[in-house]
Design a protein that fits this description.
Blueprint (H helix, E strand, L loop, with lengths): L7 H4 L5 H16 L4 H5 L6 H14 L2 E4 L9 E4 H17 L6 H11 L11 H11 L3 E3 L3 H9 L5 H9 L3 E4 L22 E6 L3 H7 L10 H13 L2 E2 H8 L3 H13 L3 E3 L2 H8 L2 H10 L13 E4 L10 H19 L1 E2 L14 H14 L3 E3 L9 E3 L1 H12 L6 E5 L23 E5 L2 E7 L2 E4 L5 H12 L12
Antiparallel strand pairs: 1-2, 3-5, 4-5, 6-8, 7-8, 9-11, 10-11, 12-13, 13-14, 14-15
Helix pairs in contact: 2-4, 6-18, 10-16, 11-12, 11-13, 16-17
C-alpha cells in the first residue's frame, strides 16, 4: 500500500524476472558500498541462491567485484567496481595523510638501524650474512671494499669462509654488472685494477634478472694472454685453475694475470668468492694470511673452484614480461636496502638501473595492492616517496629517540655514504680508502685523499675522539692483507 504501477512508457515492455533482479541489484550496489549476499537478499525476501545468480551476472559484466573489503569481514562481500576504486583512493589518501615526515638526520639514524650498522643492531653468525647480502643485493662497490669494510661493518665477527660457503652452495654469486665505459674515440677502455672493479653480490636465483638490465658486449680489448684463457673457458666450459693453465699452455702466473683482467672486464667469474679474493692479494702476502687465519679460508687460486663465463643478457630482444619482472626485482631490492625510497636516493645507486619513472610505476602498483605505503616520509625532498610497512614504525622511533652523540665511521664505498645526497654539502667519492663519520645522523668529518676534514667546529676533546673514530677501520684480522 499504496499500489505501485509501472510508468506508461514501460507498461507494455516484457521484462523477465532474472533481468529485473539484476537491474534492481545494480542500483543497490551503486549506493551501498561493500555488502554481503545476505544483506542484499533480506529486503527482497528472496533465497540467497537467486541473489547469487544475479550477482554472478553483474560480475561477468565487470560491474561488480567480489572479495572481503571491510576490516574483519568473515564472509565475501560485493561492491560496484567504480565505487570500490573510489573507496580505495580515499583510503590511500587517508593513509598518506597519517604520515609525519622526519628530518634528513633522523632518516640517516633510521638507516643505520635498518642496515644493521649501529652497534646494538649488528648481527652475528653465517646465517646473518645471507640476510645482509639480500639487503645489499645489486649494490655496486669496489671489489676490495666488500670484505674489508662493507660486510664487517654489519657483521663484526665476519669470517670470509661464510661467503665462500654461500657461493659454493649456489645461493650467492658475485659479478660485474656495470657495462664497460667506451672511450671518447669509440673504442673500449681496457681493464681496470681488480681492487677497484665494481662488484655486486647477488642471490644467484636473481642473477638472470639483474643481467637483463645490464647487457654486456661480447667484444673486449683483452690482452693476448687473457684472450687465450678466455678461449679455453669458452671452448671447455667451467674449468678449474689448473685445467686452464694446462689447457691454454700458459704459466700459472700468466693465468692469474689473465683471470684478473677478465674479471675486471666483467667476462668471467668463479664459483667461490675465494677466486676474487685471491686476485686482490699479492702472491707474497697469501702465505702470511694463511698463517693468521682462524679457520679454513681460501686465499689461493686453487681455492677458487671453477672459472666460467659471466652470465650476460642475450643479444636478442628481451621479452616485455621478463624486463618488467627485472624492474620489479630492482624496485623491491631498493626498498629492502633503504626501507624508504625516493628519486634522490637513486643517485647513490648504479647508473644502469631503471629510471625513476619505471620504478615509480612499480611502486604505485605495490601501493595499490597494499604491500607498501606511499606518502611524505622524509622532509625536504620533492617527488613521491614509498616505504615498507615495517620501516614506517622504525622511522617514528628514530624521530622520538634521543640523540646520544654516538659516532659511526663508514667507508666511502658503503651504501650509507649519503653525504651530499641526503644531507647538504659536498659529496664524498665512493672509494674504499675514503671514510665518513656520522654523529646522530649528521656527517661531521671525512677522510679523503689521506686528509681529515672536519665539517663542524669541534672542541679539542671531541675532535680527538672524532679523528680516532674516523681512522679506525673495520678490517677483520683474517683479512688484513686485503686492506
Amino acid at each position: 500500500e499504496p499500489a505501485i504501477s509501472a510508468p506508461a512508457a514501460l507498461a507494455q515492455q516484457q521484462v523477465e524476472r532474472e533481468a529485473a533482479l539484476v537491474e534492481m541489484l545494480r542500483g543497490r550496489l551503486e549506493g551501498l558500498g561493500p555488502v554481503t549476499e545476505a544483506a542484499l537478499a533480506a529486503p527482497f525476501a528472496l533465497p540467497p541462491g537467486e541473489i547469487a545468480a544475479a550477482l554472478a551476472a553483474l560480475q561477468s559484466e565487470g560491474f561488480a567485484m567480489r572479495g572481503r573489503f571491510s576490516p574483519g569481514a568473515a564472509v565475501d562481500e560485493w561492491c560496484e567496481r567504480g565505487l570500490l576504486a573510489r573507496i580505495h583512493r580515499y583510503t590511500v589518501k587517508r593513509l598518506r595523510a597519517e604520515i609525519e615526515p622526519v628530518a634528513a638526520k633522523d632518516f640517516l639514524r633510521f638507516l643505520a638501524r635498518w642496515q644493521k650498522v649501529e652497534a646494538d643492531t649488528r648481527m652475528e653468525g653465517p646465517d646473518a650474512l645471507e640476510a645482509v647480502i639480500a639487503q645489499l643485493e645489486g649494490f655496486e662497490a669496489p671489489a676490495g671494499a666488500w670484505e674489508t669494510e662493507i660486510l664487517p661493518a654489519r657483521l663484526p665477527r665476519y669470517e670470509p669462509g661464510w661467503l665462500d660457503d654461500l657461493c659454493l652452495a649456489g645461493r650467492v654469486a658475485w659479478a660485474r654488472l656495470r657495462p664497460r665505459n667506451p672511450r671518447p674515440n669509440g673504442g673500449e677502455r681496457g681493464a681496470m685494477p681488480v681492487r677497484t672493479t665494481p662488484i655486486t653480490l647477488i642471490q644467484r636465483r636473481h642473477l638472470p634478472l639483474w643481467a637483463v638490465l645490464s647487457p654486456m658486449p661480447d667484444a673486449a680489448p683483452a690482452s693476448p694472454v687473457a684472450q687465450a684463457a678466455l678461449a679455453f673457458i669458452r671452448d671447455h666450459g667451467a674449468s678449474f685453475f689448473d685445467e686452464i693453465a694446462e689447457g691454454s699452455g700458459l704459466l700459472k702466473p700468466q693465468v692469474e694475470e689473465a683471470l684478473a683482467e677478465l674479471v675486471a672486464l666483467g667476462l668471467v667469474a668463479s664459483d667461490s668468492f675465494a677466486g676474487l679474493r685471491a686476485l686482490l692479494v699479492p702472491a707474497e702476502k697469501r702465505r702470511s694470511m694463511r698463517e693468521r687465519r682462524r679457520r679454513s679460508v681460501g686465499f689461493g687460486m686453487e681455492d677458487a673452484g671453477r672459472w666460467a663465463l659471466a652470465r650476460r643478457a642475450r643479444a636478442a630482444p628481451v621479452a616485455a614480461e621478463t624486463e618488467a619482472e627485472a624492474v620489479e626485482q630492482v624496485a623491491r631490492g631498493l626498498l629492502r636496502r633503504y626501507g624508504v625510497v625516493f628519486w634522490r636516493l637513486l643517485e647513490r645507486e648504479a647508473d644502469w638501473l631503471p629510471p625513476w619513472r619505471d620504478l615509480l610505476r612499480v611502486y604505485r602498483r605495490l601501493e595499490a595492492r597494499g604491500e607498501i605505503r606511499g606518502g611524505r616520509f622524509v622532509a625536504g625532498f620533492a617527488g613521491e616517496q614509498f616505504a615498507l610497512p615495517d620501516a614506517v614504525g622504525l622511522l617514528r622511533d628514530a624521530r622520538r629517540k634521543a640523540e646520544t652523540g654516538a659516532l659511526l665511521s663508514l667507508s666511502g664505498a658503503d651504501p650509507l655514504n649519503l653525504a651530499g645526497i641526503v644531507t647538504p654539502g659536498a659529496r664524498l667519492a665512493a672509494l674504499t680508502a675514503n671514510r665518513l663519520l656520522y654523529r646522530d645522523g649528521i656527517p661531521i668529518a671525512v677522510l679523503a685523499g689521506g686528509k681529515v676534514q672536519f665539517l663542524e667546529t669541534l672542541d679539542a676533546g671531541s675532535e680527538w675522539a672524532a679523528r680516532k673514530a674516523l681512522l679506525r677501520g673495520a678490517v677483520p684480522r683474517t683479512l688484513v692483507g686485503l686492506a
